[in-house]
Amino acid sequence: MHKNSNATRSVAVIGGGIGGLVVALKLIQEGYKVTIIEKQNFVGGIATSFHHGDYIMDVGPHVLTFPTKSEITDEIISIVEEENLIDLPSMSNLYKTYFQGSFFTPGTPISKIFTTLGIGFSFRAFRSYFISKCKNLFKSKFHTIDEYMIASYGEFLYNIWFKNYIKLQFTGSDYSLKNIVNSYPGLSLKSIILIIFTKKSHVALTDNISKIRSSQFNKYPKLGMLFLIQKIQDRITDKGGKIFLNSTITSITHNSPKKITFEQNNQKNELNIDAIIYALPPKLAIQWFPNPLQPSPPKNLAQNAIMVFLFVDSPGLFDWWVINFNQPDLIFFRISQQNFLSKNICPKNKTLLCIEIMCNDNDEISKYEDSKLLSIVLSDLKKIDILNNETIDSKILKFNNFYIDSQMSSNPQQQEIYNFINSHKQEYLMGVLQDSGNSSDSNPSQSNAGFHSAFLNAAEIVKKINLDFTKK
User: Fold this and answer.
1) In the chain, where the domains are located
2) Which helix (H) or strand (E) is 22 found in, with range?
3) Which of 48, 96, 178, 396 is deepest in the core (most CB within 10 A)?
4) Three-class SS of residue 451?
5) Cα(342)–Cα(338) distance, rounded to whole angstroms?
6) Between 100 and 20, the higher pLDDT residue
7) How far apart are CA 337 and CA 310, in angstroms?
8) Given a cut of 60, is residue 370 above it in pLDDT?
């Protein structure tokens, strides 16, 4: 189909995260009239940034991860331009996990962890391991991730370490029993003997993240992720694309002609459209359909995020980028020292920290005033010796439905919803598993995360749209 013949075709993209922006850009390049409808007051999803004085705050830790050779890689770099990107070193050196009072690098051998944490921890772990092995001695098939991990490592290690850790590292379809088994092959009796008698072991308590990262190269925009988002947004609007922010869709007519009714700033809008793309997770997109798969959309589809940004009067607080926390006594689960990647996102001799807190609507913490949240965060940071008496300013941002539950995303019903929505003529559900794009190594287990996968998905959707309109 020629681009000129697409000029009369209109396409609505619901969702302005990475997936929505990229598919909109691709459609405009093909000549379509494109409108993006986004519920937030910004585009880019979690892969965007906000300005606060001279600081540029990324919403969590983000980095662009590409295959070393790819046409899509070249296309992404052409958008942001090579001189605006920073080459990053080995990603495995940029991460730490805080566990039981110590910092560990991904891939740390079990022997070192046990030696660091002492004989009491080791005894409880080994005892739990042997009990689980005896219980599952003749079992070779497992049906759930919990069942497999407890049988492989023991209930103690699973509950205190793996249960939360793997949910941080695996999201969406990657959170599957098959992937967990491949990444965590379990401890053998030989490994246990080596740990006990030689204190040497190459068995790691972490997954194969470092191996995945080594097959890719990583870059970061000098002026934060917002720079890249704005580049894509500008290309869309320069070509006549429209973007509606702060918009709530109230209804969608799925017959031809299709009609989307939405409210923006208390004003009702109606959009007649030829095709619709849902750049949303399946269980969010299904809410606008008479759904035969479930009576009504589930509540609490995701957990909320509280981002506490600290502007610290110090050139640096630690020698790495991201710290993951697996300690229920701490209010946060992740910290990123954002100026570690680029000195251009904050003033000289200052540090920009992003502290992430995950909560539900019913959690007490979600009702805290900002002053109380800040007080608890500062107290916890001092407890783990990240802060002392530095001068600090702060900014707190809150996002609803931010972290899509990994088990929800990997639910088999997702494919049913996908097939159901795509059965509607000129309606397409993209393979978006989060409520906004994840461009980052906050989920480094995905080999083609974020922008690269967004371009792959967008190319497939545009190809299908072209084909469907040709048939029409």
Assistant:
1) 3-48+70-84+219-299+410-471, 108-205
2) helix 18-29
3) 48
4) helix
5) 7
6) 20
7) 10
8) yes
Q: In what order do the strands lie in the sheet with 242-244?
A: 242-244, 33-37, 10-14, 275-278, 427-429
Count the neighbouring beta carbons within 10 Å of the beta carbon of residue 389.
Answer: 6
Query: What would the pLDDT profile of 385-405 be if each residue is shown by its tens digit?
Result: 999 989 999 999 998 877 765
Query: Which is higher by pLDDT, 217 or 353?
Result: 353
What are the CA-CA distances from residue 255 to residues 171, 273, 346, 380, 469 (Å)?
Answer: 34, 10, 51, 55, 16
18-29 and 225-238 helices, crossing angle to 10°:
30
Q: Residue 27 burial by CB count (10 A; 0-12/13-18/19+): exposed, middle or buried?
A: buried
User: How far is Cα 386 from Cα 323, in angstroms, rounded to an integer?
Assistant: 11
d(Cα 26, Cα 33) in Å, to the nearest integer? 11
**pLDDT higher than threshold 70 for residue 203:** no
Residue 4 per-residue DSSP state: G
What pTM did the predictor assign? 0.80
β-pair type (49-52, 55-58): antiparallel
Query: Who contacts 465 (Cβ-Cβ below 8 Å, separation ≥6)?
Result: 11, 27, 32, 275, 426, 428
Helical (H) or strand (E) element with 127: helix 119-135
Do residues 219 and 66 make contact, with C-beta atoms less than 8 angstroms apart?
yes
3-48+70-84+219-299+410-471 has which CATH code? 3.50.50.60
Residue whose pair of structure tokens reads 């707190």 in the numeric block: 396
Evaluate the omega torsion of the peptide bond into residue 257 and state whether it is cis, within 30 degrees of 0. Answer: yes
Mean pLDDT of 255-263: 93
Look up residue 374 and give its two tokens: 């800040």
Residue 221 host element (H or E)? strand 216-221
Q: What pLDDT sits at residue 155?
A: 87
What is the edge-to-edge ordering of all strands in the sheet holding 64-67? 64-67, 216-221, 85-87
Cβ neighbours of 56 (radius 10 Å): 23
Distance CA 450, CA 67 (A): 12
pLDDT of the residue at 99 = 81
- Residues β-bridged to residue 354: 309, 336
For residue 380, the SS3 value is helix
What are the pLDDT digits (tens) for 311-366?
999 999 999 999 988 788 899 999 999 999 999 999 999 999 999 999 988 899 99
Q: Exposed, middle or buried, 467 (CB in 10 Å: 0-12/13-18/19+)?
A: exposed
Residue whose pair of structure tokens reads 């370490």 in the numeric block: 161
Name the range with the highest mean pLDDT among 114-118, 148-152, 183-187, 230-234. 230-234
Q: Are 21 and 230 in contact (CB under 8 A)?
A: no
